[in-house]
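Course assignment 3, question 2. Fill in each field.
Student: A.L.
Task: Predict the tertiary structure for the chain below.
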Amino acid sequence: MAQLGTTAKGDAAWWREAVIYQVYVRSFADADGDGTGDLAGVRSRLPYLRDLGVDALWFTPWYRSPLADGGYDVADYRTIDPAFGALAEAEQLVGEALAMGIRTIIDIVPNHVSDQHPWFQAALAAGPGSAERERFWFHPGRGSGCDQIPTGWVSSFAGPTWTRTTGADGEPGEWYLHLFTPQQPDLNWNHPDVRAEHEAILRFWFDRGVAGIRIDSAALLVKDPALPEVPVAPGPGAHPHVDRDELHDIYRSWRAVAESYEPARVLVGEVWLEDQDRFAQYLRPDEMHTAFNFDFMARPWDAKELRQSIETTLDAHRLVGAPPTWVLSNHDVTRPVTRYGRAQSGFAFATKRFGTPTDLVAGRRRARAAALLSAALPGSLYIYQGDELGLPEVEDLPSDAIQDPMHFRSDGVDPGRDGCRVPLPWSGEQPPFGFSPDGAACPPWLPQPADWAGLTAQRQDADPTSTLSLYRAALAVRRREQGLHDGDLRWLDAAPGVIAFERGAGVACVVNLGAAPVPLPDHDELLLVSDALADGLLPPDTAAWLRLVS
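Answer field:
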């Protein structure tokens, strides 16, 4: 098994300024030609990731799953899904990546399991009142006939959060809670078995050399046992199933597990909270190390909005001494090239609709500038696979190709998330663009656009002006320049519509989000620019890294 610290960067606090690349295995690279990405495909592309300059890989769930929600319905945490490979291959991948200086972070989904998980199957078989059902949230139902839903809580994927079971005699039975799909029953975190099992899962993977975990839906685990309705305006910690104070004891226990290893493992939270003070509580020294910054990702392409997000984020993290994280997209969110080309360029799940127009030329310029902005900020940087290629969202998938439950649970109103999960284009002039081997028996699990030949990694590798070349250059400069490492920033005077700040050692970032070119501050060296200058001026939707006059 891989031993951390032997070949990867030995700094125990590597996570404070790491560049972490998100791998959605199903869409990364298909080695066996069945149309689905796999671990062998990832292993074959490790040199690409090394050359890109990343410090760690974050894998979305690779465990055995019926894939009702893209793998976030886990049936067995100790088994790799056969579509992706086997446990021994995962161990091999962790070791091979580490030998290239790349650590591994894996997803843990503690709020729920698959309805095919042995625990839930045992609970269904055991019946009402059984010990097996106490690990979940079963309820007899309200009303004289028990036919009324226990609560009116709304699913994260739209619709109700309770499904009624059917007994062995064919009669309606108890209801069970699922904040997501009916195929993802919620666990009862008041039960000692649930806590013990998840700590054992952490140890299982930490023992295999995994450097850390990303905690899915980290603010949702604990429910109010009284199952009250959601108040109109719940106070801090008063929501019945979001951000409850009891969560922090769970993560303190997990932190203790992580720190029992040498070197200590890392906890990264997916924490969607608007209240920055409540958000920061998850990052206290005895809880998580870092958490995703969704506020920055969701902001529109607007200088005032983005600066406000940066300031708020830095202030919140400064209180607890934790490094912020910066991310432009992930496997759930509309890709930046498409999003930033829209009139409403922020992101919200509630506003996703078919047919929303976008200007991909403007979106690509802005996405390139945003890449330099995010990479220049203090803290760690996350890159979702394909963003380094400047891929757009695929918004014209055939209706019979759509698989995301968000689409179906919205009665087809929400386009779903499949558009950012289309398999990557690696090489060639036509689909599957090197995602699958030549002569593969099956097409990619989601169809690729026919016009992606110009976006393949192979084509961009040979083009010094490509988005891939920009990302490689940015990560190389970020690694080389001590001034871009962990630390704070100082805002510089700037014209309206411009964001400008200095990091350490006189390194500055200037981003023009306005409508007219602007002059750059006095500088000794232009380190990097997202697009060419115009007569020495920084054009609209362009970012530059500078070494200021000393």
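Instructor remarks: The chain has a mean pLDDT of 95. The two ends are 49 Å apart (CA to CA).
Grade: pending
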